[in-house]
Structure formats: C-alpha cells, structure tokens
C-alpha cells in the first residue's frame, strides 16, 4: 500500500492526480506545513528535506517498505511501478527533458513568483517582475512546443502533462490581477483545458479539502514555511 504525504500545494497535487488517474489504492496523510509538521522527526525520516510530497510504498523489492520524495522522482517511480503514463519507449529522452524543464524551471520560478507577491514582508517590484517574466518565458516555450500537439510528449497523456498541470493550475495566482493568465498562450491554454477536464482531476482537487489546514499567516507559519529566513531555526 502506498502512503501519500501531502498538502494542497501544486507539487502534491501532481501526485494526487497520478494516483487517481492510475486508480492506485493509497492512504493520504495530510502534513500541515504551516504548523511545521514537515519538520517533525517522523516525517524527516521519510523526506530529509522536510517538504511534501513524499510517499512510502510497502510493496518494494522483497516486500521492503521504500520511501520516495520530490514530486518528479515520485512520478517517475509510480509510472515505472505501474507501467502507466510513460509514453512510448522511444519517447523516453523527450519525456525526461520536459519533466526536468518543469522541475527546474516552471516549478521554481512559479513558486518564487507566488512568494514575492503573497508572502514576502516587503514589496520588491524587481523580484515580482523577474519571476513573473521568467514564468511567462517558460510558458512561451511550452506554448510553442504544443502547437499542433495534444500532449507534451508523444501521442498520449504522460507524467509530463501531470507534472505541468500541477503548476499551470495555479496560473491565476502566479499572475495576480490578470483575468486570463493563459490567454497569451493559446496552445498551452487549449492543452490545460484538455487535461483539466479529465475525470481524475476533480478527484485529485477534492483530496484534503475536508482537512482543516492552517491558513493564518503568523510567526509560527513563517518560521515553519521559511526556516532559512531565521538563523535560530532548526528547519
């Protein structure tokens, strides 16, 4: 059985979508990162980096429980475990390229764009402009690539689409104040709408909505979420 440690952020959303698409049985364990639960020793034993998502799988080689952390690693692990959403064998180099493009570009720049617009204590126009423009650049790369394509890699839905969906779903928050943040990227917008109508998406979105995650921003939350900002933090 897979145990899935999550909150409502974009990276865990990717794993929720894969699990629902593949119809894998799993136990979902909420980790309230605003309360600092990701820094508890029990969770650090699963992910030493103290972030979600993470999974444990009791059906590893020889029946040994294994751990996997980082959303891209988890997607690859689950896809290889199930044989689903990997595309054709000849697509593997392309699949890895786009997965890492999302992992090292779309995700981090999107996260920083959100941070400097919503979490930074002081408004820093340069930082906001820098990260929003980089997100736009990455979107443009995807938009150009998706011209004439239904999916990112090969002929079908793969973990590259799942990975990208997790962050593209937050475009309205990333591009704060824009009514149609994907409007400038017609091929990307059409792709997102295509993925977003899949039945598993609604199930993935529903995960955790019945859990009372902390939403208030206070000193406890800031220390839990941004421990490197506090020299005395153990995070």
From TrEMBL:
PROSITE patterns for the chain: GST_CTER, GST_NTER
Domain of life (superkingdom): Bacteria
Biased composition (Basic and acidic residues): 209-223
Residue span of region Disordered: 209-235
Domain named GST C-terminal: residues: 88-217
InterPro entries: Glutathione-S-Trfase_C-like (IPR010987), Glutathione-S-Trfase_C_sf (IPR036282), Glutathione_S-Trfase (IPR040079), Glutathione_S-Trfase_N (IPR004045), Thioredoxin-like_sf (IPR036249)
Location of the GST N-terminal domain: 1-86
Name of the protein described by the UniProt record: GST-like protein
Lineage: Bacteria, Pseudomonadati, Pseudomonadota, Gammaproteobacteria, Enterobacterales
């Amino acid at each position: 059985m897979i145990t899935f440690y999550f909150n409502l952020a974009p990276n865990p959303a990717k794993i929720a979508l894969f699990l629902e698409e593949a119809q894998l049985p799993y136990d979902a364990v909420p980790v309230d990162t605003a309360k600092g639960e990701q820094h508890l020793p029990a969770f650090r034993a699963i992910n030493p980096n103290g972030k979600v998502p993470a999974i444990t799988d009791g059906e590893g080689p020889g029946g040994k429980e294994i751990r996997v952390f980082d959303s891209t690693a988890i997607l690859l692990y689950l896809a290889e475990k199930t044989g689903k959403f990997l595309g054709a064998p000849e697509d593997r180099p392309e699949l890895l390229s786009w997965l890492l493009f999302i992992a090292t570009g779309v995700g981090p720049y999107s996260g920083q764009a959100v941070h400097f617009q919503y979490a930074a204590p002081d408004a820093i126009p340069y930082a906001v402009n820098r990260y929003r423009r980089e997100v736009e650049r990455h979107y443009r790369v995807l938009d150009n690539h998706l011209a004439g394509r239904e999916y990112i890699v090969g002929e079908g839905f793969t973990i590259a689409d799942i990975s990208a969906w997790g962050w593209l779903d937050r475009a309205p928050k990333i591009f704060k104040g824009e009514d149609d943040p994907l409007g400038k990227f017609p091929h990307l917008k059409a792709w997102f709408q295509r993925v977003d109508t899949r039945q598993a998406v609604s199930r993935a979105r529903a995960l955790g909505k019945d859990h009372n995650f902390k939403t208030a921003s206070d000193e406890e939350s800031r220390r839990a979420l941004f421990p490197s900002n506090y020299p005395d933090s153990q995070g």
